[in-house]
Amino acid sequence: MSRKNFYHLTIILSILALALAGCGSAPDGGANENGESGDVRITIGTGGNSGTYYPLGTAMAQKIFSNVEGVSQARGVTTGASVANIQELAQGKYQMAFVQNDIAYFAAHGETVSDFDGKPVENIAGMATLYPEDIQVVTRKDSGLESLEDLKGKKVAVGDQGSGAEANAKQVLEAAGITYDDVEVNYLGFGDAAQGLQNGTLDAAFITAGAPTSAIQELGATQKVHVLSIPDDVIKELTEKYPYYTEQTISADTYKDQGQEEEIKTVSVMAMLIVDNELSEDLVYNLTKAMFEGKEALEAAHARGADITLESALDGMSIDLHPGAKKYFDEQGISTE
């Protein structure tokens, strides 16, 4: 073979080698032939922009995860929250999502929520639990509504249809002896519900979110609010029937500037982060570590960021942990058993 032909053959072989290496890479988090993970584009499913998930999720993406080794890009997107987030993570649209711990359990076990009944979601894993999400029943201060019983015959927003908030609203109403037939149901998310209360097209709205919730604060800027307490007997029934609910008291000071005059007795679930269980152990380890080491950014993004602690990171964990998260918690001496 001539030197010239040998030179040309060498170039062709080099190009082929590069092409094959490119085919073996994993830009979306899969493993290459050496078991090594390529850089990942992380999309985080959050919630509506008037809730708590969105500001925390965008802060995680922009301030923390975008700097993590193995991540090429990170962004948080607005969504329909828990149920939609799990469905779209299962479809590969998100690599991480905020969800309620009860909805994560229902999805993993294929029960209770109609979207998951008999159809368990198999590719979700837990990363960490974050903070309590309070069930808040909001009315206008001048509405005259003082109890759950007063909601009968009224126009009530119960959250987006099929959402975690709607599941909570239905369970609370049923525990109080109230069915959807007893109220005029409106399937509206946080922001639209606040607008409905403001313009008088709604009488009350259920919101499941960490307090203080921006939708309630925004409403209170123009219209004084009253957040109803859940009676003790209803709280007792909920906590006994559903293991994910815990009794919670929201200080009156939380919405003092919006017109609230007394503390609010209610129940809460836990917000949590789930990940696609196909993400590599190293990547999820790095993400978990970065979140807890950079949580000042979360505290700056929303008051609930202060509730995200290593010590409470597994409280109410309702599905199997991702091995990468487990590795981090084990290193930190947090029991994962």
Task: Give an account of the 3D structure.
This is TRAP transporter TAXI family solute receptor. It comes from Desmospora activa DSM 45169. Residues 1-26 form the signal peptide. The chain has helices at 3-24, 53-64, 82-90, 101-109, 164-175, 190-199, 214-220, 232-241, 281-293, 296-301, 323-331; strands spanning 40-45, 71-77, 96-100, 124-140, 155-157, 184-186, 204-209, 225-228, 246-250, 264-276. It is α/β, with parallel strands linked by helices and 337 residues long. It folds into two domains: 40-131 and 271-331, Periplasmic binding protein-like II (D-Maltodextrin-Binding Protein, domain 2, 3-Layer(aba) Sandwich), CATH 3.40.190; 133-268, D-Maltodextrin-Binding Protein, domain 2. Strands 1, 2, 3, 4, 5, 6, 7, 8, 9 and 10 form a ten-stranded mixed beta sheet that branches. Helix 5 (164-175) links the parallel strand 5 (155-157) and strand 6. It is globular, with a radius of gyration of 23 Å.
Outline:
The protein is an alpha/beta fold. The chain has eleven helices and ten strands.
Q: Helix/strand-derived class?
A: alpha/beta
CATH fold field value of the largest domain: D-Maltodextrin-Binding Protein, domain 2
Q: Into how many domains do the coordinates divide?
A: 2
The average pLDDT score comes to 88
- Tally of strands: 10
Radius of gyration: 23 Å
Question: What is the tally of helical segments?
Answer: 11
CATH architecture of the largest domain: 3-Layer(aba) Sandwich
The largest pleated sheet is described as: 10 strands, mixed
